[in-house]
Amino acid sequence: MSQQSRTLVESAWRAFASHDAERIAAVFAEDAEWLAPAGNATAVALGAPSHMVGREAIVRFLAEDFRRLFARDVTVTFRGFHADGERVVVEETMTATLADGGQYANDYCFVFELRDGLIHRVREYMDTARAHRMIFGAAPR
User: Where do the SnoaL-like domain residues begin and end (predicted)?
Assistant: First the structure.
C-alpha cells in the first residue's frame, strides 16, 4: 500500500501543477479537507480560508486562486516522499514570482491522508513568518 500511496500523491502533484480542475478533482475525495496554519500569508492575501473543506473548494483554490498570487515561474523541488500505509509525507521547497513581481521561496511539509485511493485530508506546514515577509514585507505580530 505504501508504494501505491506514494504514486498517488506524486500523480496528485502533477495534477496540481497543471491547474486543470478536472485532473485535480480526480485525486480528491468529495469530503476532502486541506488544513494550513491559520492566518497564513497565502490565505490572507487571497481572502481564502486556511481550512478548506470539500473537493470543490480545494479544486477552486488550486486551479484558480493559487495563480492570482503565485503568478509565474512556480517551481517545486521535492526533498522527500515518505509513505507509510495510507499516509504520505512530502517535503518540498516552492519558489515563484508573485503577482507584484516579488520573489517567493519557502519550505513546506505536507501530510496526505488517503482513503479508498483518494486524498481525504492534507495538513500543510510552512514557515508562516517567512511567507508573510515575502508577500507583505513584514511578519505578523
Answer: 10-121
User: What does pTM read for this prediction?
Assistant: 0.93
DSSP string computed for 32-82: EEEE--TT-HHHHHHT--SEEESHHHHHHIIIIIHHHHEEEEEEEEEEEEE
pLDDT digits (tens, 9 = 90+) for 106-136: 999 999 999 999 999 999 999 999 999 999 9
59-106 pLDDT per residue, tens: 999 999 999 999 999 999 999 999 999 999 999 999 999 999 999 999
Residue 116, domain extent: 2-135
- Cβ atoms of 28 and 119 closer than 8 Å: yes
Sole residue written with cell 508573510? 132
CATH of residue 45's domain is 3.10.450.50
Give the per-residue pLDDT at 135.
96
**Distance separating alpha carbons of residues 126 and 108, to the nearest angstrom:** 5
Q: Say if 141 falls within a structural domain.
A: no
Dihedral sign computed on CA atoms, order 134, 136, 137, 140: negative
C-alpha torsion angle, residues 63, 66, 67, 73 (rounded to 10) = -110
